[in-house]
Design brief:
single chain, alpha/beta, Phosphorylase Kinase, domain 1, Rossmann fold, Dimethylsulfoxide Reductase, domain 2, 4 domains, 7-stranded mixed beta sheet, 6-stranded mixed barrel, 31% helix, disordered N terminus, nitrate reductase (cytochrome) activity, iron-sulfur, electron transfer activity
Length: 776
Amino acid sequence: MYQSVFTNRREFIKKMAVLSAMTAAAGMFPGIIFAEEQEKGIPDGANLDWKKAPCRFCGVGCGVLIGTENGKAIAVKGDPKSPVNKGLCCVKGYHSIMAMYGKDRLKKPLVKKNGRYVETSMKEALDLVASKMQETIKEHGKDAVSIYGSGQWTIPDGYVASKLFKGCIGTNNVEANARLCMATAVTGFLSSFGLDEPMGCYEDIDYADTFVLWGNNMAEMHPVLFSRLLDQRLKRGVKIIDFATRTTRTSMAADKTIIFNPQTDLAVANAICYEIINNGWMNTAFVEEHCNFSKGLTNMGYGLEDHYKFTDRPEAISFEEYKAFLEDYTPEKVSGLSGVSVKDIKYLAAHFGDPNKKVMSLWCMGMNQHSRGTWINNLVYNIHLLTGKISSPGNSPFSLTGQPSACGTVREVGTLTHKLPHGVVANKEHREFAAKIWDVPVENIDPKPTYHTVEMFRALDRGDIRFMWIQVTNPMVTMPKLKRYRDGAKKEGRFIVVSDVYPTPTTDIADVILPSAMWVEREGLYGNSERRTQYFEQMLEPPGEALSDTVQLIEVAKRMGFEKQFYYKDETHIEEIYSEYRRHHEGKKHNMAPLEVLKNQPGAMWPYVDGKETKWRFNAKYDPACTNGKDFHFYGKKDGRAVIWQRPYEPAAEEPDADYPFWLGTGRVVEHWHTGSMTRRIPVLHQAMPHAYVELHPEDAERMQIRTGDMVKLTTRRGEISLPASVNQRGVPAPRQVFVPFFDEQMLINDITLDSFCPISKEPDYKKCAVKVEKA
């Protein structure tokens, strides 16, 4: 597959395969390749030009060095100057450059004519896209066109998409796939603190005494960061607590694993708060000075209907009312519901409550892809606020992201229907500010949000949306209840444009396929989980007629008559676009580092003020935006106080019953990244994990006489799928639960998942639905 690139490099590939085997055997640091091993993989006698970039894959934002020779990427290694990974790489990062050289790389635009794809020029394809958008707007109105992007968009990609659709066309039909993975983190931060994104940073790992992983298989999902936890345990004897619904590689490396029943993390978190208060562990001075108490609605629905009404009206309550509410969440009451012993609930609470221990909570999809995702985020913040363990080195509630720029391009740029780069569309001052920078009439920016992701695809199905441009994402693998949305996209009268680097199930539904430049084949910026903005330059020429997504959008904008708004002097536009984007975030609360700074170092965290990055927000000792004269200032709220929320336990949207007696959960594996459209084209990774599977508990497998490799049929109310069994292999679910990774486009587990979502964040719950399990 890669001979054209790695001619005379067979030894190099052999070395990489050996390194992968070494990695699998490295039990203490699962999925990690060390610097000295990376050096062994560099071809002998190579004269390489090394340049820095953030890794193309997950939201950790590792710095890598890419070695190029004769216009090809030949080698990659961890950047020792990066404070994120300090020279380490995971297996995906180490093999990342190979993802650019699959034999089926898209190089020419394709237009569907009479049911078949025909090659055309980029000019003709972009002309068609622009004319179809204009035609759709004329016939059906501005809200009949939409764009669906990604946390893999670069910051310039997302920025120009938002500017074109929200500022020029005047529709808020802008969404990104981070709605499926990170929207809950956003609403959790906003409701508790009034501002999005973590107040801490990765450096917290160097100070914390205890790490609590909330439903987070960090060893496989964020292996470089997990290696930093393990390193601290070797150096300082820190504790790692795995709080999860299944046993994973993280469990094997943790000091203690606590298994809970799905959805009951809500109850356990409240029980921890009960213990903190009733044992006198609350930091009373901090709470009285810096916190308010509030409650919201509980009858909020699960997002299952096409049309529903929701308003979360907060209501102030007293500390005594909150304390009385927690009486329903004693460890004894919660133990029976959650399956967690009273002893283990008290064990968790004691770590948070010990004034001599610094605690870092870490989570990802386990909490965020949750029908009450905003609530569980709020509840973890409650624990840290009650103990005052927040916004200081080592005391950090920290949400990890799954994509390289889910924070930078979706949360910071604001590529969600309700957002603007610096605020929300519903706020008149925010609209006026954006309109001035974008050079458009303020009336162009609609004050009313339209569709979040699930509703956007429902609108496409209904016909309210007629045109959709999909960039850098693969929704025909990732959408929950997938068959409905795949069928909807194929209906008559829909026009779908897909920009990507490889054929996928999403390009299969496209009317126009635009080949995109990938990663270092163009210039760009990503923003990682710790608010770190990272720049990368163009190192390679893209194949064929492939263009960056930024340039594709600008070219279509110009064809639609928006030359003035998209007139940029420099060839790649990136410097001018980033300078324009920075204007949205000026000020001590969110200032972005200048491009020259980002070019000269491995990124910088915002707020970047007076030449310094802010590592711990809301803490006057570290954050220059604090102005209330107190030690802490939660300036996202008007009164400068964070909110401790009264959030009850509620059952999942769909629970096992007599007909569907198991829980079904989905997730990822270390070898593949999300839908695998890139990593499955890397031979070493594909061979290591060639297909999906279904994990069963050994007792369930024995009862049904199922062995590893046997085919198992999973049936939900939405359909059925058959996969090979995995028993006592990498992960082990609890009894009456099964787990399936979603990377395999030949085994589309999302055909049978539920499209229930958190009614505040609108993020789907991929972790819980009812399923029947049978030997096929």
